[in-house]
Amino acid sequence: MIALRRLRSTSFHLGKIHLVNMSVESGMVANSIRNKLQNSLEATHLDVINESYMHNVPKGAETHFKVVVVSDKFDGLALIKRHRLVNDILKEELQNGVHALSIVAKTTKQWDESEKIIDSSPSCRGGFGK
Q1: Which of 25, 76, 119, 126 has its CB 3.0 to 4.6 Å from that of 130, i.e. a possible disulfide?
Q2: Among candidates 27, 109, 107, 105, which has minimal Cα distance to 75?
Q3: Residues near 85 by Cβ (< 8 Å), separated by ≥ 6?
């Protein structure tokens, strides 16, 4: 399998990142993540990507996610504070089965001025007894 190096977002508001072999918005956990981030941050752009298939987990698992969240509520916050805010919003999911969470957190201005390119996550390097 050829690993993707970069992903390009093809939409500006509440759209999807152009993905190959990635699961976007599937399952109860992904939906919970999406709802909590949307409601808490009033996101102008939000992608919830289930990256579990890239890891040594059962088929259909919801354990590894990447979120791309754009919100005006990030204005004036350092990147670490944005990540802490997202982690706090998703505290329940992180304590109940979500093993990994990659976060891209931008202000609306940063997103609008960007090329909307999101780096793909690295391939799994083991785990679960490997």
Answers
A1: 126
A2: 107
A3: 41, 73, 74, 77, 105
